[in-house]
Structure formats: C-alpha cells, structure tokens
Known about the structure:
The structure holds 3 protein chains of 3 kinds.
Chain A: H1 3-10, H2 21-31, H3 33-50, H4 52-55, H5 93-129, H6 131-146, H7 149-160, H8 164-191, H9 194-201, H10 206-214, H11 219-242, H12 254-261, H13 269-297
Chain B: E1 4-15, E2 18-30, E3 35-39, H1 46-54, E4 61-64, E5 67-70, E6 73-74, H2 80-86, E7 91-94, H3 98-101, H4 108-119, H5 124-137, H6 143-146, H7 156-168, E8 174-178, H8 186-203, E9 206-211, H9 214-220, E10 223-228, E11 231-237, H10 238-243, H11 248-255, H12 295-299, E12 305-307, E13 310-312
Parallel strand pairs in B: 3-9, 3-10, 7-8, 8-9
Antiparallel strand pairs in B: 1-2, 1-4, 1-5, 5-6, 10-11, 11-13, 12-13
Helix pairs in contact in B: 4-5, 4-7, 5-7, 7-8
Chain C: H1 2-29, H2 34-39, H3 46-55, H4 62-75, H5 88-123, H6 128-141, H7 145-159, H8 182-188, H9 194-229, H10 232-239, H11 244-282, H12 287-296, H13 300-328, H14 330-333
Helix pairs in contact in C: 1-13, 5-6, 5-9, 5-11, 6-9, 7-9, 7-11, 8-9, 9-11, 10-11, 11-12, 11-13, 12-13
Amino acid sequence: MTVESQIDAAAPAGTPRPPSxxxxxxxxxxxxxxxxxxxxxxxxxxxxxILADLISPYSPIEQxxxxxxxxxxxxxxxxxxxxxxxxxxxxxxFSRIIHGARLSLLIGVIVVTxxxxxxxxxxxxxxxxxxxxxxxxxxxxxxxxxxxxxxLAIVIVAILGPSLTNAMIAISLVVLPHYTRLTRxxxxxxxxxxxxxxSKVSGAGVMRLMFITVLPxxxxxxxxxxxxxxxxxxxxxxxxxxxxxxxxxxxxxxxSMLASAREFVSRAWWVVTFPGLAILITVLxxxxxxxxxxxxLDPKLKR
Amino acid sequence: xxxxxxxxxxxxxxxxxxxxxxxDGIDLTVDEGEVLxxxxxxxxxxxxxxxxxxxxxxxxxxxxxxxMDFDGRDLRTLSERQRRKLTGKDVAMVFQExxxxxxxxxxxxxxxxxxxKVHENMGRAQRKRRAIELLEQVGIPAPESRLSSFxxxxxxxxxxxxxxxxxxxCNPRLLIADEPTTALDVTIQKQILDLLLDLQKDRGxxxxxxxxxxxxxxxxxxxxxxxxxxxxxxxxxARDLFTHPQHPYTGALLDALPERAIGKRRLPTIPGVVPxxxxxxxxxxxxxxxxxxxxxCRREAVPLFPDDGGSARCFxxxxxxxxxxx
Amino acid sequence: xxxxxLTRFSLIIPTFIxxxxxTFALIRLVPGDPVELMAGERGISPERHAELRAAMGLDKxxxxxxxxxxxxxxxxxxGQSVVTRTPVLDEFLTLFPATIELSVCAILxxxxxxxxxxxxxxxxxxxxxxxxLMGISLTGYSMPIFWWALLLILLFSVNxxxxxxxxxxxxxxxxxxxxxxxLIDSLLSDEAGAFSSALSHLILPAIVLGTVPLAVIARxxxxxxxxxxxxxxxxxxxxxxxxPFRVIAQHALRNALIPVVTxxxxxxxxxxxxxxxxxxxxxxxxxxxxxxxxxxxxxxxVLQGGVLLVAAVIMLVNLLxxxxxxxxxxxxxxxxx
Lengths: 303, 326, 337
C-alpha cells in the first residue's frame, strides 16, 4: 500500500483534504495580480541576466566608432542593429542593459545574503543574550539608523574607496540593522511562548533553540524584508554608481551608465531613458513581490 | 399611528463570497414612549436592523422595505440630508462598546456639544451649559471638570454614560440601545440599565433595547421580538413570552437562563451556532438546532403565524406544557 | 508633557555619542595619513609632520584624543575645510538654509498632494481611482530619483524650456541673504523678478525630492484612514447625523494622522539621502552637494563635521516629530494608559 492511499482511507469520505501550507500560500499570493506581475518580471530579468552572453547582440564594452549616439530603431537614423541606440562612445545600449541586469541582480543577491546572514545572527544574539550584549547591539543599530542610509553608505565608501565591491559592502552594512531589529523582536516574542519553554525544559541547547526552534518561526517577516531588501540594494547601488562611488566605467552598471549619460540629456534622450527605466522596472517588480508576499504571509490578514 | 413602523425590512450585503441577507423581511412597530425588547444570539441581525433604522448601513449593504415610517415620514424617500436631520436628533443610538465608540482624539465635552451644534440652534455658552446638565442627568460626578476629559481617562461605565448623554442630548423620540451593557462589569450593567429606563420614563421617549440577555428583557420591556438568523421568530408581550413562549428557540433561550436552571445538574444550552452565509438550512432556519424538529420543518419555509397576543414562526408551536416551563 | 520631552531627549544622547564615535573613527580610518589629511598638506617634511602631529594631539592615547574631540564638538569647533580653510561649522551654516528650503518645499509638495489623494483613495476604496493611485504610488516609491530628475529636466527644461536646469537663482540677480531662504529673501529685496527666478529654480528639485515621500505619504494615509474608518467611533459620529465630509475631515482624519505624522517624520532621513542626489544633479548649493564634493576632494574634516551635524539635525527633527505625535495623541500627552 502506498502512503497516499493510507491517508485517503483514514480521512472521512467527502471531506476535502486541507491544502498544503505551500498551496495555501500560493492561493493567497495568486489573488494579488501585482505580485504575480512582479514575479513574472523578476523571472524575465533573471533569465536575461543568466543568459546575458547569449541574448545580447554585442559585448557591453565593445565600441562602434561609426555609430556614436545612434537613436533607437524606431527613430529616424536608428537601425535594428542597435535596437535601443548607442551611447557616446558607440556601445550598444541594449547589450549594456542586459549585462547591467546581471550586475544589479548580483548586487541584490550579495547584499541581501550578507546583510541577512549577519543581521539575523546579531538579532538572535541580542534576543537570546539580553542584558549588556543586547543593549550594545541595539544601540549600534540605532546609531546606524540615525544617519540617512545613503550618507552612511557614502561615508563607508569614502573609507574603503570607490568600487562596486565596496559599494556592496557599504549597502550591506547600512541595511543590516533592519534585519537585526526584526529578528530580535521576533525572538523575544517567540521566547516567551510555551513551545520554546517546553523545548528548553527538554534540554535543547542554545544553538538548537536559536536555529531550529525559534528562527523558523520568524521567517515570514524576514522573507518580506529580504525581498524589499533587493529593491533597496539595487536602488542604492545605482545611486552610488550615479555619484561615481560605485561601479566604475566602463562597467555596464545601470547607475553609472546614467552618470556618464548626464551630459547628453539634451542631445540623446535614449542614453538617459533606458538604463533608468531598467532600474525602475526591476525595483518596482521587487516591491510588488514584497507587498504580495507580505499580504500572503501575514496571518493577520488571513481569514 | 406608531412612532416607528417597519414592514418587510431586508438588508443584504454583497461580499466576495456572494450576497448575504443579514435581515430577512422583518416587521417592527414601536409606539411613542414604549419599550420594545429585541432578543437574539450574536449574528441574528439585531444590530443590522438598528443600523438600518438609523440609516447607517455601509455602502456594500442594500436596505429594502415595504414600509419604513418614522413619525409618519417615509424614511425611504428622504434625501440623505433630510435623513441626517433625523439621525442623532429624533432617533439616537447607544452602542455596545463604550470604550471604542468615543473618539479618542476629542474631549468628552466636544463630543457631546457636537450634536447640539449640528442639530440645535444654540450658542457656545448655552451648549456648554446643556452639556453639563446632560452629564449630570446621566449621573457623572463633577460634570464641569469632565467636559475636558479624554475618553481614555474614563472607565467603561463612565464612557457608556457619556454615550447616553450624547444620545439624549437633542431629546430624541426614539432611542435605540444596542447591547448597551454587554461590555460592562456586572455591577455596572444594572446601573446603566436603570439609567436608561429612568431616562425613558422621565422623557417619555420610545426605547428599543437590543440584547441577547433574556433576563434584561424581563426587567425592562413591555413587548419583545425574538430574532433568529435575520428573521423575527416570535412577537409577544413580555409577560406572556416568559410564561407561554411559543417558538422552540424562545423556549430554549429561556431555559438557558441561570435562574431557571436551579435544581438542574447543568445549565441547558442550545447546540450549534446561528447559520451564516454558507450554511443556511432549507425550511425553518432553526431546524438543525431545534429539539422538536419534524420533517415539514426541514422542507418548508415557515411564515409568521399570528396567535392570541402575538405571533410565532413555527409549524408546531410549543404548548405551555411543551417541556419548556416544566 | 515636560517629562515626556525630557525622557525623549535623554534617549537621543547615547545615540549622539555613538555618532561622535563614528565620526571620530572616520578620519582615522580613511586611507592616507591623518596628519596630512587634517592639515591638508601633502608631502611635508618629517619635522613639520611631528610638529603638526603634536599640535593636533595625535601623539596622545586614543581616549584622550576622543576627549579632546568631544570637547571641541561641544564648543562648536568642528575643524576646518582643508580646501577652503574656513571652519566646517561656518560652511555648514551658510549652505544649510538652501537644503532646508529645498526639503521643506519637497515635503510640503508631498503632503499637499499625498494626504488628499490618500484620503480619497481610502474613502473610495476598491475603486479605479484607488487601484490606479496605489499603482502609481508604488511606482513613485520605486523611483530612482536621479533618473527621475534627468527625465524632468529633459522634458521641462530641455524640450519645453519652462524651468532652468540648475542653481538656486539666475545670476542676473543678487539678493541680500537675510534668512538664507531665497524665496523669502528675494521677496524682501528690491530686485524685480528675483522671486519668480528663485521659484522657477526650486520647482523641479522640490518635485524630484518630494516624489518618494509623496508616494509613502499617500500609501500611509490610505491605509491609516482605512483602518480608522472601520472604528466604532466613526459609526458614533455618523449616528450623530454629521455630514460625511465632517465625519471624514474631522473625526477620521484626526486619528488617521497620528501614524502619518510619524511616517512623515521618518521621511527626514529619506529626504536627506534624496537631497544628496537632487542637489548634485541640480547644482543646488546645499549640504548634500557639499558632502559629496568633500568626498571627491578628499576634504575629510568637512565630511566628518558634516556627517555629525546632519545626524544631529535628523535626531532633533525626529524628537520634534515625537513631540508632535504627543500633541496629536491625547493618550500620550496625558500619560494615560
């Protein structure tokens, strides 16, 4: 006999099987059209990023000296050879944007992973240790949150020196307190609950309590925060790139593309428009997804 | 001519899951200076009925009635503006949750004087004098100093007194009290109920007292309507209702009164809950929970049968000896 | 109320001390020799180096150095710019009004548009208006404002020629700085046309800087309003026979504003981050542009002092927001529970 048929036999006839947690989650999530649209966009952008070398017609740094500032194909003087036109040194904007997607998503992944990992561990420590350790960690968070995130990132880049890697480190540090606060708050609520007490009484060690008993119960807000963290990371990295403190030319990063396009605002609208549009669409997609996840995971909104 | 005359009132709400009929063809009449009790469990449509009378049904609700007259004026044909002139002035309401029914951002005085400002042509000083008077009437000590209190500084009983002061501020001819004592401590409940009845007697206003507590009705109302799942299942003068209930639901509610259960091993309860949007039964709406259910009850919808002194929505009304009062 | 202010104030002191630690560390962490960085001289002789080092107290233990730094900060001495040789505090005070003017106009723009839109969306919940407003506001929230600025310049300055591209006022005018706010100063001066020049320079930057706060305020107002509209006291207000407008504008709004004010207060940090980008793009002579330039010029005393001052301002504004919150919410003002 298979397991499934045993379950069937056990269940009273006619009662629908309760939906699996994942199925239930998808049910709520799929009701939110914006969130689904965001997910679709993210999948497309991710595919473009992964397959960048196959999709993009040219190398992002290849310069076509006879096609400088060529407009997109539907404008007069444009051609399908450069569908979104070329920039001031004759690079294909379409190829640069596709490769930029790769960078932006990479930035998102690295920043979120780094800040999530460190932030959660600090939050767990603060929540479990309480006392002086807790105060020290939370004070540190307060200090970091007292400064505008971009300013703090600029200070950190000023210390480390401008580069894409340092920009990612700076942004990770800046967003980290959010995860710490979130985890700590969740840990403190969870710790007072009976199941944790039970687990403690039955002799679970601190590590086990932290990662196996408590952490899985605060994943929902962390997932939402991490999704929204992608959009912050992409936006801040682009801002730093725009200010010349992030990715350096000729890296096809969207923000630094905009920085070098600034002086052509009046002559070639396309060099300014498309990289920014790419940032906006990607960030919007992550925000839509984050909102949708929040609604689908928030038990308060469930019936 | 009755003060309030309602025939075949229905209130429907459109929700995502479909249309839900919260009130299903009820008739209500209230005479000038009369106390009418409306009894039923949570979800029986009592509150929705009163909100419909007040004209406070939200946008997703639809109110239909064959007749809906207040003091000879057809409420259905009034414009919203005309309707608002009645609401809060001639018809006023006291709600169940005094602690959340007062606006936390405004002082007690402001909230009382607001009705006066809207409905009565009074100057500032006059309004203040009247507000102090009202607070005195509802038994709030040191009323002058209370005017500048904020709701969070008041206890539940105090808040309900303020709500009552607000409701009677423009001398309403009909006061609807929707479970006015449910959220309060037992000791306070009696005080508030007595206050309401005193005010009703002194001012000769009509009072609709909505409650799920048969005991409260026994002490106060002259006539009682029992509601179940949006329908009126029994109408009767209070005295007869308690001695000769005809509908099994009324009987069961009475049996659930603690003072009637003296000598029994346990307090009788009514199994199950009031049907909601998804589980309305065929036939009599009470049939799944009824101890005297017959086949006919499961098949046919029951009209309200008049009898001497009242009416009951039952094919097989209880006899006096029908296992209830015994 | 006084105790409330005092507790709030005592809470920000440790945070401020933490920020001084950060700025104190900053100049010792940036690449390069601190002596040369602070003196603004490169390639100096060893004797001069030792002399300066002793003069700046860099030979003393770190704790002593920090003590000296704090003492200087308290006296208002934040060092001097290695480029212009003027005290950092003076430069800050000269440029600060420009940033305030821009930020205040941006937040006013965001509030004047965001609050009513949020209220209407809540009242007409589920309508086409509601859905489109929420879509637009999420787009605004996701906006890379440096790109948004370029687009607006492209449209309004380049194509339509309505607004100037950069600066605070046309070079034709010279306005006596009285308050530091050009909108006010230009009205006080005799120069005809100065005010409209200042205004036309301000519009685009203010819109750019106000975009994200506008989106946040509209969304927050909507959700806060929706919550309040379902409260029992709104039913009470309607049961009094009040007109719908009065119920919404007085009873609901007053309660709904409490969380919105907090959110507006939290926008101060966002606003400042935005000001860095906006000022850089529009060549707006304010604090944001000053700080970015200090990084590229390696003018670290300016960065150090500027960061400390910005942090202090933001903390003060947050304190003010907390106090406003107390005024709006009687439960806090009266210390009740």
